[in-house]
Design brief:
The protein is an alpha/beta fold. It has one domain (3-216): Rossmann fold (3-Layer(aba) Sandwich). Helix content is 38%, strand content 11%. The chain contains eight helices and five strands. It has helices at 12-23, 43-55, 67-71, 93-97, 106-120, 143-153, 172-182, 204-216; strands at 3-7, 29-36, 59-64, 125-127, 162-164. Helix 1 packs parallel to helix 2 (43-55), helix 1 (12-23) packs across helix 7 and helix 7 (172-182) crosses helix 8. The chain starts with a strand and ends in a 7-residue tail after the last helix.
């Protein structure tokens, strides 16, 4: 694979994916896209910049989608200041199927923009860090979603772009093991939905990250 584009949020999964594509897929020209989509904090974007430098990407762009948060006002705890970030323990079983932290159609929007960028730059392969969450889930991180979005992209009459999600069936501990083997510096990643000075430790993604490190048996240096 000569060139590839990675969606890079700055979190554990996308940082691992970036280095996975670089080292395991042996991509020569690696590109990365991050998105400022109106999320409540920018800690993860700072980490994305660091990971992009560490991986030696050819180009890293942070795309300004700040209007998106206003467009979906009332639709997500990640973008609406009026909706509090929940603790994982406060979510019912039904809520965990699609929690308040879900951002309406976010991944499809991001992947559509990534596919356009890739096609324009002659890149055939786009990767994103969909992962089988342990405690909660999003429909746009599933294998079925990836399969169907690729069906649409194959309608392209020229050179179709393909979406890859190699971690879609993996638990976070499995992703972490891959990253540790690749030498990913997880002290320069950010997972917490609340985005304070330190991770809150109780939001859904904090709990999954903590459990992953405990499962693997290593210390999370970010904490």
């Amino acid at each position: 694979m000569k060139a590839a584009l990675v969606l890079l949020s700055g979190g554990l999964d996308s940082a691992t994916l970036l280095h996975f594509v670089k080292k395991r897929r042996k991509v020569q020209d690696l590109y990365a896209l991050s998105f400022a989509y109106g999320q409540k904090h920018s800690r993860e974007l700072a980490m994305a910049r660091r990971q992009a430098r560490d991986a030696g990407v050819k180009e890293h762009r942070i795309v300004d989608l700040s209007f998106f948060g206003g467009l979906i006002a009332g639709g997500s705890a990640l973008t609406d200041k009026a909706i509090p970030i929940p603790n994982l323990t406060d979510l019912s079983g039904r809520q965990r199927r699609q929690p308040p932290t879900y951002v309406p159609n976010r991944n499809q929007v991001f992947l559509s923009l990534a596919a356009a960028y890739a096609e324009a730059h002659g890149i055939r392969d786009v990767f994103y860090g969909a992962q089988a969450q342990d405690e909660y889930g999003y429909w746009d991180c599933t294998v079925d979603f990836v399969r169907r979005i690729n069906q649409v992209l194959r309608l392209n009459r020229g050179k179709a772009v393909a979406i890859h999600a190699p971690f879609a069936l993996l638990k976070k501990a499995d992703v972490l093991r891959i990253g540790l083997a690749l030498g990913v510096d997880y002290s320069h990643t950010w997972s917490c939905y609340r985005g304070g000075k330190n991770p809150c430790g109780t939001c859904p993604t904090c709990v999954e990250r903590r459990n992953a490190f405990r499962t693997v048996g290593v210390e999370d240096e970010l904490r």
